[in-house]
Amino acid sequence: MAVLYPSQEWCEAWQEAINNDDAVLETGKNWGVGFNGNWVFQLLPGGGLDETAYVYLEAEAGKCTDARMVNDPSEVDAGFLVEGSYADYKPVVKGEKDFIEGVVKGIFKLNGDMGKVMRNAKFIRAVANSISSFEAEYLGE
Amino acid sequence: MPTIDDFVRPKEWVSGFLNDLGKVVREWGEDRYIPIRQQVDEDWKGHELIKPLLKEVLVDLGVNAAFFPAEAGGTDMPEPMAVANIICEELARLDSGFAVACICSVWGLMPMLLEPHRNMELCLEFGPKFCGEELYVGCHAMTEPQGGSDIENFGLMKGKTIQTTATLDGDEWVVSGHKLWPTNSGEVGDLYVVVCTTNRGSASPEDFALILVPAEAEGVSVGTPYQKAGMSADMNTDIWFENVRVPRRYRMHGPGDDFKYWKRAISMGNIGSTAFCVGVMKNVYEIIKKWTTERIIAGKPLKEHSMVADMLSEVAILIESTSAWMWAYTREFDHPEIYGWDPWDERFVLKTRGLALHANNAVEKACSRAMDFMGSYGYAREYDIEKHWRDQKEIGLWMGGKGLKTLENARYWYDLETL
């Protein structure tokens, strides 16, 4: 059954997808170990989204320990923040566009320790790939 | 106060992420490379210092993986020329010899890595090695004893001087020949991309072949490292291939297409060489800025003397102009859809020769002028100007040398037909 992106149900489905993905487990064994590997994804209005939304993802040693919607990034302790418009996130969640390409081209702005990102780029790619591994429905469509 | 980060790098083309990626490389270098870079010059033969540093960049920082597809364990970075430039520039700021060793690990593989001519079968076979946890290094074996830059002069020579042969025998290629000077030769390279001909003396692009040869294959042998003026982190030796057998699938694409897509790697080599020059010049700028600020002559900083200011101005202009031109051609490389030609178009190779030539002349002048005004201090090892001065010379010698670059630039802009 398709879940609405973004929503608490979608966050839970993503957490399950990540934790069932061998590639994430294999490439992420060092992620979040000794540093804050948690993420906040900021979804700016547009493409059917009326107000800014935040998705929080807790990741450590290749496992996702929590994924949920938050009202404000200050509610959680995240080492990495990704900013982008909902209109740009949608094709990534659908699997039509590549998240890393979006980051490299500046469509998404990534804040955090870039050294950790470079050293764990394969893990980030695996997590990004997991995002389109389950069915979702979208605002504005 | 301006710094090296204020030289032109168009924000419309180079994302914040790529700039951040460059800063990661820079921070790594300040911590791991700068403290020992003068010792690296003495490590030309054994690479005992260099090998672990290569692993840190190619494996830990993910430079090898950056260009491989995700299915093969890579990170498949888009805009490969922009990514390569950032890496080349930052590494060359530390040591241009180390920079070329790093990027040449994947340079020869570009005809099989880049879209739309990616060879996924070969990517899947070699990706896990290049993108794994252990150091695995590529080497583009091109130059031969009799030909010098003839192989790169494909506009006129069309590959007819290539002496290394690839002969199909059943389901195997049999490779025989002798290569000189490849970056990462000797004991460094694990996989050679060998420029061969399937028909010695032929000027047909159909007979030009790019064959992958693992270094451990039977019949491969290497010489001892050359001792050079500089670039110690770039190991160069002879390589001999004596009836080396590899699977038929190790030819990158096939008749005509090997030659076609190899031209894209040559353009990439010209632009990447420019990035090395920019990186070197930026470090020269840092050194002479500090020197001419702190050194007091006749009661005022050296930089406040008009003759010195003239030199400082010249160096800044060389960096700014080279960088601007480099990013313009990088954009053309990464976005052929905007410019209306294929990225392997021979005309683009010719144009990028002009860029590389300008960069070679610029970095040579910048190093020399900096040394002029630092006097004996510039010639002393302590200040690293002499290191860059020695190292940069080789950037002008490779990719066909200044002679070929000059002729090909003229060939493009003036439609030369006999040169």
Describe the protein's architecture and organization.
The complex is a heterodimer of chains A (141) and B (419). With 141 residues, chain A is an alpha/beta fold. Chain A is built from 6 helices and 7 strands; from the N terminus they run βααββββααβααβ. Chain A has helices at 8-19, 22-27, 86-93, 99-104, 114-119, 121-130; strands at residues 3-5, 39-44, 53-60, 63-70, 80-85, 109-111, 136-138. In chain A, the strands form 2 sheets. A 5-stranded mixed beta sheet of chain A has the order 4-3-2-5-6. Chain B is of the alpha+beta class. In chain B, 50% of the residues lie in helices and 11% in strands. Chain B contains 15 helices and 9 strands. Chain B has a 4-stranded antiparallel beta sheet, with no helix packed on it. Chain B has a 3-stranded mixed beta sheet with strand order 1-4-5. The relative contact order of chain B is 0.12.
Query: Can you count the beta strands of chain B?
Result: 9
Unreliable parts of chain B:
none
| Proportion of residues in helical segments of chain A | 25-40%
Order of helices and strands of chain B: HHHHHHHEHEEEEEEHEEHHHHHH
Determine the mean pLDDT of chain B: 96
Q: What structural class do the secondary elements of chain A suggest?
A: alpha/beta
H and E order of chain A = EHHEEEEHHEHHE
Number of strands of chain A: 7
Strand portion of chain A: 25-35%
- Low-pLDDT residue spans of chain A: none
Terminal Cα separation of chain B, in Å? 47 Å
Order of the strands making up the biggest sheet of chain B: 2-3-7-6
Q: How large is the radius of gyration of chain A?
A: 14 Å
**Rg of chain B, nearest Å:** 21 Å
Helical residue percent band of chain B: 40-55%
Shape by Cα distribution of chain B: globular
H/I helix tally of chain A: 6
Instruction: State the major sheet of chain B.
Output: 4 strands, antiparallel
> What structural class do helix, strand and pairing data of chain B support?
alpha+beta
Oligomerization status of the protein chains: heterodimer
